[in-house]
Design a protein that fits this description.
This protein is of the alpha+beta class. It has helices at 20-23, 38-44, 71-77, 100-114, 128-136, 150-153, 157-182, 201-214, 276-293, 302-315; strands at residues 28-33, 51-56, 62-65, 82-84, 119-122, 140-143, 185-186, 192-194, 197-198, 217-218, 223-226, 247-252, 255-256, 265-270, 336-338, 345-349, 361-364, 367-370, 374-377, 380-383, 390-391. It contains 10 helices and 21 strands.
């Protein structure tokens, strides 16, 4: 028989989450797989691949419940006041499940019962299985859409250093890929050749993945190496042969496996001489990027950044075409996004983007795309400070990547 005793507390109707002030004294909980859940990873300090949970008690203690084999490593990470395993809190009746995730959820519910806790605040990634067993134990949950998000938006100095390192490594591989494209041989019909074989989007991505692997970075989210006709779509990964004279968008966003922080950089390279249209597109994109960065201050909004970009590009004759591919170059996407333990983090630099905070890190990546000329995008990573944005990139932004 299917039944549920899941108890969900009322939420604030204006924000969609439980009111922050009413949650201040309530215990908090996160759970799941820390190697996939950035919020949980940040609390535990380890990318655990087995089910785990974090609980903050009303007195401020941080409690971890992890697999018994991971207890010593979790203690050594130094993020928690106490570390337990599911066997420490078996169900009050019956025996613990032989399934690890179920046993973990049962133990979280039992731990909270033993603490006389009947209401807990959870984050946006809280798994249903844990919510189910809390409900079975009569423990209500409230959802807070800022829990685990707001504190990750504002980066510590150490986190900024990790992002700076990740971006520097990304730039090393970006330079390699762009210079490889720029110096390739030219075969029949203008097809680019490398070591006697066609240079394709797929080969560029494979070379980038191999280069990152040697540096202990991963491309788990893939990469983009796209030219006509695919680059008319701003997020197409690219496929097939690359050609001289056409703009090629290279977008790399690897993860540092040591710190779990991400790089994210885009450059556009043209083998040979770009057309006048492509040069004009590139100049407009760079100008719009500068306009975006002039707004990147605490207290300004992500929407203001987007409007600054659109003002430059529209003034130069490029229309807005969100959600629709066009023949002539057009604006297809927002200006950027937060970045950290995940490639895409709140908030967006786009329409509806909220107030920016000192210490946030964003990508700024305006672009233009069309079927006739292809696409042009340039992307850097910047830190918001009261003195103005700090650019974590050093790499040149031009179309010409031939070092000779």
């Amino acid at each position: 028989m299917i039944h549920s005793k899941l108890i969900v507390a009322a939420s604030d109707s204006t924000s969609g989450s439980a009111t922050t002030s009413s949650n201040a004294s309530l215990p908090q909980a996160m759970a799941g797989l820390a190697d996939r859940n950035a919020n949980l990873f940040r609390r535990l300090g380890l990318p655990l691949g087995d089910p785990a949970a974090w609980i903050r008690l009303p007195d401020g203690q941080n409690i971890g419940i992890v697999r018994d084999l991971e207890m010593d490593r979790t203690r050594a990470a130094g993020r928690l006041d106490k570390v337990h395993c599911p066997a420490d809190f078996p169900p009050a009746t019956g025996t613990a499940s032989g399934d690890r995730e179920t046993a973990s959820a049962q133990s979280v519910a039992r731990f909270l019962q033993l603490q006389s806790i009947d209401h807990v605040v959870v984050d946006r990634a809280f798994p249903l299985i844990y919510a189910w067993y809390l409900g079975e134990a009569g423990i209500a949950i409230s959802y807070d859409d800022e829990l685990g998000v707001l504190d990750r938006r504002v980066k510590t100095d150490q986190e900024i250093d990790s992002l700076r390192k990740a971006q520097a490594v990304t730039e090393v591989v970006m330079r390699q890929m762009c210079e490889t494209i720029a110096t390739a041989d030219v075969g029949s019909e203008g097809r680019l050749m490398l070591d006697g074989q066609p240079l394709t989007s797929e080969r560029v991505r494979t070379m980038a993945a191999e280069a990152f692997m040697k540096l202990e970075y991963s491309m788990s989210h893939g990469a983009i190496a796209a030219t006509l006709p695919h680059s008319a779509d701003c997020h197409h990964r690219g496929s097939g042969d690359l050609y001289t004279g056409h703009p090629i968008i290279v977008d790399l966003f690897p993860r540092d496996e040591a710190t779990r922080y991400n790089g994210d950089c885009t450059r556009t390279v043209v083998h040979g001489t770009p057309s006048e249209n492509v040069q004009a597109m590139h100049a407009a994109v760079v100008a719009s990027k500068e306009a975006a960065e002039s707004v990147l201050f605490p207290g300004r909004t992500g929407e203001e950044v987007q409007l600054a970009v659109e003002a430059v590009l529209v003034n130069r004759g490029y229309p807005i075409s969100r959600g629709e591919l066009t023949d002539a170059p057009s604006i297809q996407h927002g200006t950027g996004h937060g970045i950290g333990l995940e490639v895409h983090e709140p908030i967006l630099l786009d329409h509806g983007g909220g107030e920016m905070l000192a210490g946030e890190v964003f990508t700024v990546e305006p672009g233009l795309y069309g079927r006739q000329d292809g696409g042009v995008r340039v992307e850097d990573m910047l830190v918001v400070t009261s003195d103005g944005p700090v650019n974590l990139n050093q790499l040149q932004m031009g179309l010409d990547w031939n070092p000779n």
